[in-house]
Amino acid sequence: MNDLADKIAARLLDDLPPGECSELDRRIAADPEATALAAELSAMHDQLAAHHHLHAASPTLQQRMVAGFRTARSRTTLASRVRAWFRLPAIYIPATAAVLVGMVQLGSRLTDEPLSRPRFDSAPAAPESRTDATGSITRATEGVDDVALVPRAREAFGNESAAFSGPPSEATSPAPVTGARDAEISEQKREQSLAGGGISAQQAPADSESVRKLIRNASAEIEVTNFDTATQAITQAANTTGGYVATQSSARLPNGKMSGTIVLKVPPAALDGFLAQLRSFGEVRNQTVGSQDVTKAYFDTEARLKNARVMEQRLVELLRDTKGKVSDLLEVERELGRVREQIEQMQGELKVWDSLVAFATVTVRLSEKNLHEAADYLIQETVTLALATVDVEKAFAAARGIAEAEKAQITQSNLTRDGNGNATAVLTLLVEPESCNSAIERLRALGNVLEFRRESNRVARDGSGDAPNAKVEHEPVRISLSIRSQDQSPTQRTQLRLETAAVEKAVQALRDFAGTHSIEIKDSSFNQQPDGRQVASLRMILPIAGNKQLLAHIDQQGAVKDLSVHRTDAPDASAVSPIAEVSITVTQPPRIISSEDGLLATLHRTFGQAAGALMWSVRMIGVALAFLAPWISGVALIVIAVRFVRSARRKTR
Amino acid sequence: MDDPDLIRAALGGDESSFEELIRAHSRRLYAVAFGVLQNRAEAEDVVQDTFLKAWRDRRKIRDASKFSGWLTATARNRACDVLRRRRGSPLPDEIESLPDESVPPAGADIDHADRREHIGAALASLPETHRVALSLRYLEGMDCRSIENTMGLTSGALRGILARALERLRAKPELQQS
Fold first, then answer.
1. What distance in Å separates the CA atoms of residue A94 and residue A478, rounded to the nearest whole number?
2. What is the tally of structural domains in chain B?
3. Domain range list for chain A
4. Which candidate, A414, A392, A575, places its Cα nearest to that of A480?
5. Which residues of B touch A65 (CB under 8 A)?
6. pLDDT-based confidence at residue B142 (cuts at 50, 70, 90)
7. pLDDT tens per residue across span A486-523
8. Pick from A204, A316, A467, B123: most CB atoms within 10 A?
């Protein structure tokens, strides 16, 4: 039936070949069940088609989908825009930047506005907008930037700015009026301005070149070969330009070098030439040129002065009128005094400005070459000498004697002896350089030289660096001498064993001999061994000359055995007296039969060892049993339990 | 329908070309989604989501010839996702709620509604692949070979699928009585 249903389904799907269709029709016609099946399936097919037809896509589905897409596209978020920006090819960003830069450049060209403000923008751009703001220009010797900016400054200031830009020229820079003539002309102009009701900011540009008030000053630092010569030359140069020396100061250093400062007043027109001339006097280390524009302040003060004079004139006229009261007269007089004080103050200001404008101030600092080189040198010499000697006190006294003989100054002297008899001496001397070598040689001979160090140091005074012609002085030589005890090692060492039945008696005899012959017993010992033997040891220090006599005395006390002698000849053995060291071991002669030998002793020892071995084996067995007992007990319990269970089962069966 | 130039233009970001593709593929994708979900509103949402995803991921689709298959697979996966989420909550009435046999039908409209519910329940009991194939057949009128190619079915499999579906419907007495 499944095959029939599949074929019916295939025909419903129009997927059945025509041959099979006719065969299927015959089968359906012949078989009633097939007929019913075909009818039911066809009905279900219709219902299925109808069901899907009910849920078919809406005719407006496509339009709604497109509309939904457009709506979603229009809801582009900021994040998606950023993502889209980063998806752009990298070339877009520099291209955008290039376009922006190009637009900025184009705008700059069209508007003639600089991209960055020049330094001269702080100065007034036109005379009518000029204020009393002062601008000063510092022109370094290598000031490339200022040179480059000069045309812009000239453009901004007009021709009057030539004072800023190097040497003045007749064509471009009418120089400020010089000297007394300048003061005269300025006074005339001041009178003219007063007569005309004062000068205003709008009237000033008309002849600004002649009324401009510039205070110029300069400073220079010059290194010269000879201070006096340079000072004279500079003074002469200033006089030639019409200037003069305002102040002068100088100082001489300990090394003979001179330095100083000259303040000169030079006509402004000659300032640049004078500065150029300064270069011929020495090496210019630093040079500064500056100016201050006081035009506005000057003419403001002038205007106030004119008003004050008018006021003064009126007050004087009031005083002539005697009809007023006395109190009014007094009041007028007070006011007149105040106005006259103001007039004097303003006149003083104007005179100061006139003088500053009339002359430029040049401050020249002069210093001779190698100004800080050393004036002289001091040779400081120190000697450190450490000696070791057997007799420290004797050497110390000898060293003091040498110091007195060499006329040395003792600055420190110290001798100490500790509880062990070791002495230490310290002596510090100041010796004249001429007698230094002989003193050192004599001191070295006082003992063995452990350390010798001689140091010399040249110290420059009042300066630094090398000065070939500077004086050289020598300080007294400082000798630091230290003397300490010498541990003299023996030249000859003798070791021997003395066998005698009476050890104590022999030791006492040796002690007595040492006491009578000035022999030093360094250490001694005595003990009695378990077998009753007595052993004593002695170590003696004595002059090597007495060694032979001591050995003869030892030989009288018993049998001398195991004698060994070791001798060491030091290179400087002649310096000190040689000593000898004798080490003696005094023992009793050995017994002929040891108490541990013999048959009985051997048997006793053998049985004792056997018993010990037996006890050891018993102990080991005990340990083994203690180790194995828990395991043996456990196994036994298991075996018993198993047997119990088996027997119980047998009984159950 | 699958003009390679049109697809390439759309994948390159041309919105008008993409809108053309939306018009061309909407109904087929609806049939696929409806086959899975058996719900019109959900199917339309799936189609909309599929196109938006296609627009967002258009740079990832490099082969224009596979665009149609990519759309079908995406729509089917999205529909399956919706179906999984829905199974966490009660099924829509049109699929789950079967008519109460103890209550007699009140009229012709009620009879039609009951029949639709029975057919829907029978379809819901079919495998998802079968439902999609039937939707493509009855909703889109696609021929057997196209459906089998689209669904990755063997030749002649569709007649068996239809036969099983018809047998399921035939087994329901409610549909028989009507």
1. 79
2. 2
3. 2-51, 83-111, 122-368, 376-485, 492-587, 598-653
4. A414
5. 22-23, 26, 47-48, 51
6. confident
7. 766 777 889 999 999 889 899 999 999 998 887 888 88
8. B123
Q: Provide the 10 A C-beta neighbour count for residue A364.
A: 27
Determine phi and psi for A117, rounding to 5 degrees. -75, 130
Cross-strand partners of A265: A244, A361
Query: Distance (Å, rounded) from C-alpha A108 to C-alpha A104?
Result: 6
**CB spacing of A51 vs B120 below 8 angstroms:** yes
Provide ipTM, 2 decimals.
Answer: 0.82
* pLDDT for A576: 56
Determine the straight-line distance between the first and last CA of chain B, rounded to whole angstroms.
41
Q: What is the pTM of this model?
A: 0.34
* Residues B82-106: tens digit of each pLDDT: 988 887 654 444 443 334 433 444 4
Q: What are A198's two structure tokens?
A: 């004062």
Q: Which fold has domain A492-587?
A: Alpha-Beta Plaits (3.30.70)
Size of interface A-B (CB pairs under 8 A): 109
Structural domain that includes position B37: 4-87
User: What residues in B contact A80, CB-CB < 8 Å?
Assistant: none
DSSP string, B12-77: TT-HHHHHHHHHHHHHHHHHHHHHHH--HHHHHHHHHHHHHHHHHTGGG---GGGHHHHHHHHHHH
Helix (H, G, I), strand (E, B) or coil at A522: strand
Of 3.30.420, 1.10.10, 2.60.40, 3.30.70, the CATH number of A376-485 is 3.30.70
Q: Three-state SS for A276?
A: helix
- Strand pairing report for A559-567 and A492-499: antiparallel
The Cα of A44 is separated from the nearest Cα of chain B by a number of Å equal to 6
